[in-house]
Write a structure and sequence with these properties.
Strand content: 35-45%
Structural class: mainly beta
Number of helices: 0
Radius of gyration: 25 Å
Largest sheet: 6 strands, mixed
Helix content: under 10%
Order of helices and strands: EEEEEEEEE
């Protein structure tokens, strides 16, 4: 049979969202002879394995080709990056509120 089923994109963390600074592994749900990963409708150079690791947000798809040369492309999967909240440094405490252990008596 030369038909090929449409692949699904499966993510390593079970979600299409990950935190800024991390990455996610995307995989084709089917086994094929060749793969081509696409980002925003353009091919990703060198991304020709069953799995693809990304650290950027965007619209990804994968095209799988079987032994007969028949291809099928997945639906677009939107990958989202959760931005980390900026850490704010609290104002230093008033000097009169600073604990001075030298003035504390231990019994």
């Amino acid at each position: 049979n030369s038909n090929i089923e449409k692949p699904l994109i499966v993510s390593s963390n079970g979600s299409t969202k990950f935190c800024e600074g991390d990455s996610v592994v995307l995989s084709s749900s089917i086994t094929a002879k060749k793969y081509q990963w696409n980002y925003s409708s353009s091919t990703v150079t060198g991304a020709t394995s069953k799995a693809y690791t990304t650290s950027i947000a965007g619209a990804f798809s994968v095209t799988a080709t079987n032994n007969y040369g028949c291809s099928a492309t997945s639906d677009v999967s939107l990958i989202m990056v959760r931005r980390l909240k900026q850490k704010t440094t609290p104002d230093p405490p008033d000097k009169s509120e600073v604990y001075d252990e030298r003035k504390t008596n231990v019994i």
